[in-house]
């Protein structure tokens, strides 16, 4: 290129395919939970699903981040180092109380050996074993539980703006992908043609 005139070339960026997030069915969720015999493992998986947490957010939970009276979970240092509040379901609260009574964690809500934070790999192992025991053939990851949390809320009619807040999404565009995943919501939409034909019968 030495000695040549400066040139500018426009190179278009490759567009990434938009892949919809995988979710588990509500029946599969129950099979997984029923396959968990250990109360700590059940508390971990239930918390991820019912609160829409990432693995890192679950690991960083402290005992003081759980508000049983107001049924809230305070998530510290989520994605983008942002704090947020999400819901603590009644069922999860009951499981947590049994877990706390049996395991008596010191500082972190879910502690590993030597009272240290649990590891991301241990959560994946717990889930993999439960999925295998439940007889579910497809691959289920901890992040799929978070996707399922958002999708099932949408199917229940929860406003997408609330779901955005619970997930900690800065932009609504990140949350809007779940409108494409929710098959139940799509099934509820009636074609305009059906209405026309019914009105003219």
- What is the fold named in CATH at topology level of the domain at 26-142? hpI Integrase, Chain A
Order of helices and strands: HHHEEEHHHHHHHH
Strand order of the largest sheet: 1-2-3
Structural class: mainly alpha
The largest sheet is:
3 strands, antiparallel
Q: Unreliable segments (pLDDT under 50, ≥5 consecutive)?
A: none
Quickly count the helices.
11
Question: Per the principal axes of the C-alpha atoms, what is the gross shape?
Answer: globular
CATH C-level name of the domain at 26-142: Mainly Alpha
Oligomeric status: single chain
Q: How many β-strand runs?
A: 3
Radius of gyration (CA) equals 22 Å
Query: In percent terms, what proportion of residues is strand?
Result: under 5%
> What is the first-to-last residue Cα distance?
76 Å
CATH homology group of the domain at 26-142: Intergrase catalytic core
**Helix fraction bin:** 40-55%
CATH architecture of the domain at 26-142: Orthogonal Bundle
Could you tell me the mean pLDDT?
81
What does this structure look like?
The chain is mainly alpha-helical and about 200 residues long. It has a domain at about 25-140: Orthogonal Bundle (hpI Integrase, Chain A). The protein is about 50% helix and about 5% strand. The chain is built from eleven helices and three strands; from the N terminus they run H-H-H-E-E-E-H-H-H-H-H-H-H-H. It has helices at about 25-35, 40-50, 55-60, 90-105, 120-135, 140-155, 160-165, 170-175, 180, 185-190, 190-200; strands at about 65, 70-75, 85. The protein has a three-stranded antiparallel beta sheet with strand order 1-2-3. A hairpin with a 4-residue loop joins strand 1 and strand 2 (about 70-75). The N and C termini lie far apart (about 75 Å).
């Amino acid at each position: 290129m030495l000695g040549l005139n400066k040139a500018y070339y426009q190179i278009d960026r490759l567009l990434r395919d938009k892949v919809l997030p995988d979710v588990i069915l509500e029946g599969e969720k129950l099979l997984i939970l029923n396959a968990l015999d250990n109360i700590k493992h059940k508390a971990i998986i239930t918390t991820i699903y019912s609160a829409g947490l990432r693995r890192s957010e679950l690991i960083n939970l402290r005992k003081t981040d759980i508000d049983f009276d107001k049924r809230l979970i305070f998530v510290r240092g989520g994605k983008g180092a942002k704090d947020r509040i999400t819901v603590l379901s009644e069922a999860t609260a009951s499981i947590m109380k049994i877990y706390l009574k049996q395991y008596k964690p010191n500082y972190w809500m879910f502690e590993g050996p030597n009272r240290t934070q649990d590891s991301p790999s241990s959560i994946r192992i717990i889930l993999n074993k439960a999925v295998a025991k439940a007889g579910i053939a497809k691959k289920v990851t901890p992040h799929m539980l978070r996707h399922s949390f958002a999708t099932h809320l949408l199917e229940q009619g929860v406003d997408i703006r609330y779901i955005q807040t619970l997930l900690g999404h800065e932009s609504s565009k990140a949350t809007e992908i779940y409108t494409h995943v929710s098959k139940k919501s799509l099934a509820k939409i009636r074609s305009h043609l059906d209405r026309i034909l019914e009105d003219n019968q």
